[in-house]
Amino acid sequence: MTMTQTKKASDAARAGSTGTAMMSTIGRVNGIDVDALNDVMDAVRRDPMQGQVGFRVASAWKGQTRSEATITGYTLAGEQIPRQFTVAADEPVELLGTNAAPNPQELLMAAINACMMVGYVAGAAARGITLDTLEIETSGALDLRGFLGIDETVPPGYEKMRCTVRIKGDGTDEQFREIHETVMKTSPNYFNITRPISVEAELVVDD
Question: Which tens digit of pLDDT belongs to each residue from 91-110?
Answer without folding.
Answer: 999 999 999 999 999 999 99
